[in-house]
Every structure is written in structure tokens, then in C-alpha cells.
Amino acid sequence: MNFEELYKTDLHNHLDGSILMSTCVDIINQQKIVTKHWTMEDIEQGKITSEFLGQIVYARTDMKDLLEYLRAFDVTGACMQTELNLIRVVNETISNAAKSNIKHIELRYAPAFHTSTGLTQQQVQNIVAKAAKEASVQFKVSVTIIICTMKLFAPDSEITQATFALYDQQYPVPIAYDQAGPECMFQFTDYQKQTDAIKVPITLHAGEAAGAEAVKSAVLVGRATRVGHGVRSFESTEVMELLRDRKIYLEMCPTSNTQTNVQGISKTLEDYPLKKYLDFGIKVTLNTDNAMISRCSVASELELMTQKLNLEPVDILMITNFGFEAAFNPNAEEKEKLREEAFKWNVKCLSKYDPEVEKKFCERMKLFQ
Fold first, then answer.
1. What are the Adenosine deaminase domain coordinates in residue numbering (predicted)?
2. What pLDDT band is residue 350 in, cutting at 50, 70 and 90?
């Protein structure tokens, strides 16, 4: 099956996890950027190569946990601290998405992590939003920016307050809210007053490092209409029913989940709950999380799940359709037009493998009404 030809979305894509490896190598060597992982002498001796950085950045299935996975951002973040570097990374990420038939992408990032050279969070967001708009037009990809607050920073800190101030501004592309970071830090309840006040769509990381109760909290306390990962929702039938009844979309990222050692998920992924959720009536989407760090694409995730879970063409049609349904785009007419175009194209592509795929889709969708 040709997964590349399908029209797809990537709703859970960390911008600093999707920078090209070649771009990291180029920026580090050209701009002489030093981190705790290497010295200036290493740069001068030409040691900073793709192979060298790969040992630090590329995720593995034998990693201990999410924290080990996150060390890659020491490197990628260091390469995204200036206006020109931010523009380059946004442009390349959207360009690469277009090559893989991604028709809508949502780039999430924390502006607070891109201010080490003197840029303010507002300046960072203005740069990213403008670059995203220009790349969106150039490569014909719909783009939304998801601005993240981080659990590392207290709700009343200057950093968090500066991030929340960003949601009151207008940008050339749509924006949304996410809270990310280690789940052992500040929780959704700590930021509830601020999230209640913002007017943008909300997705929250939950059910990855923490279990089903975190997913429940994301929906009930955090007001999330989508949940980032949500993979551990199977731990509670109550939570699965909540997701189904409230029509919450899960942003699932299988490859990343094996690398961050998610509890209850085998490394071989034969027990990955995506199909279980789909059959239960929960709307699921497939995403990369960190395309470069995890070395995956939406197409490769679709192929992986098809192999591991024996997905049928109708399952793939449903998953891709949910991606366009779940997109954070306030222009309802534009959003529906894109979904319809993608649906028609994907029916055409998948009909080669199952001539009755559209009929089966209509029957299966009754479960989600």
C-alpha cells in the first residue's frame, strides 16, 4: 500500500524535534555553537557530524524513559535561537511535510525555550508565525501553531505569564494552546485560571508518562478537545467512555511511545491500543511527535500500524479523516473544504485495495455519531 500518496495531517509535531539533522550539523559548525555534549575544540576538529549528533539526538527503543528521550532537545534547541535559524527550521519543516502529502500540519513549540540570545517570547512567536504563513503559501500546506507552556515553570512565573500573553494576539496563522513537559511537575489544575481565560483551542499532553487519570484531568479540568498521546487511556473504561462520549481526538504517536518507554506498551507494538480505541468509538489520529528525533513520518506510522495491527483500508480512511476533522482551524469553511478534498482523494487511493472502502467507512462512522 502506498501511504505516501495519501493526503494526511500531522497534528502532533514538535518543531524542535523535527529540525533536519543536516541543518543541525550546518548551524552548529557555521555558528560555532557549543553545548554540554561537545567543546569548541570538537567543532574546530570537524567532529560535529551527523553520525556524532545522531548518538545524542536519535531516539532508541532501549531508552529508560521520557527524560532520556528529551535530552535530544539540548541539541535541537541550541540551533533555534536566532531569527534566521527559526525561519529556516519552520520553512524546512513545512517543505518536508508537503513532499509527503501532509496537507495540514500543526507545529507546537515553547517560545520560552528560544530566548537565549535575547529574543523575547513575543518576538519569537512573531517570527515563527510569519515564517509559517509564508511557507504555508509557498508549499500549499495549511498550518497552525500550537504555543506551549511548560510544566517546568510555575503558573505565576514571569516566563509563564509572558507565554499566556501570546494567546491574546493576532497572527497570520491560527494558534492553539498546549501544556507540555514532565508530568511530575505542575499539573493542569495549577494553570486552570489562565487556561479558562484564553480563547484558543486546547490540546494537552496526557496519558504518556502518566496514566488514564491524567487523560481524565486533561478533559475535565484542562478543557482539552484533543489529547496529546492519550495512549494509556485503556487503563480505565471510564476514561475511554469519556473520550468517546465527548468526541475527544487522540493524537497518537506509536514510534515515539516505544522510545519513551510508555508503561503497558510493548516494544513490538502488537498491543498498541490504536485499533482498540477506534473499535470502541474513540477518534484517533496518527502523528510523528518528533519526526527527526524519532526518525519517522506520518506515512511510516500508518505503515507501521497497518503491519502491527492489521489495519484495513477503511481503518486508514477513518484515521486520516479524523486528522482533518480535528484540525485547529477557526475557518470552518476552509477546514471542511480541505477535509472533503482529502477524503475524496484518499477514497480514490484506497479503493485500489478495497473497492468498497467508502461504503464501509459510512457504516463504521455510525459508531462515532
1. 8-342
2. very high
The C-alpha cell at 232 is: 494509556
Look up the CATH number of the domain holding residue 131. Answer: 3.20.20.140
- Assess if residue 300 is contained within a domain: yes
Which of 354, 268, 266 is CA-nearest to residue 318? 354
Contact 314, 364 (CB under 8 A): yes
Structural domain of residue 172, as residue ranges?
8-368
As a whole number, mean pLDDT of residues 66-70 equals 76
The span from the CA of 143 to the CA of 332, in Å, is 14
Q: Which three cell numbers stand for residue 161?
A: 505569564
| Residue 280, in any domain of the structure | yes
Question: How would residue 184 be classed by pLDDT, with cut points 50, 70 and 90?
Answer: low
Distance, CA of 4 to chain centre? 19
Element (H, E) at 66: helix 66-69
Q: Is the dihedral of CA 340, 336, 146, 78 positive or negative?
A: positive
- What's the Rg (C-alpha) of the chain? 20
pTM above 0.85, yes or no: yes
In the chain, how many domains are there?
1
- Which neighbouring-strand residues pair with 227? 204, 250
Whether residue 3 lies inside any domain: the answer is no
Residues shown for the chain: 369
CA–CA gap between residue 16 and residue 29 (Å, rounded): 18
pLDDT band at 222 (very low <50, low <70, confident <90, very high): confident
Q: What's the sign of the alpha-carbon dihedral 260, 319, 98, 230?
A: negative
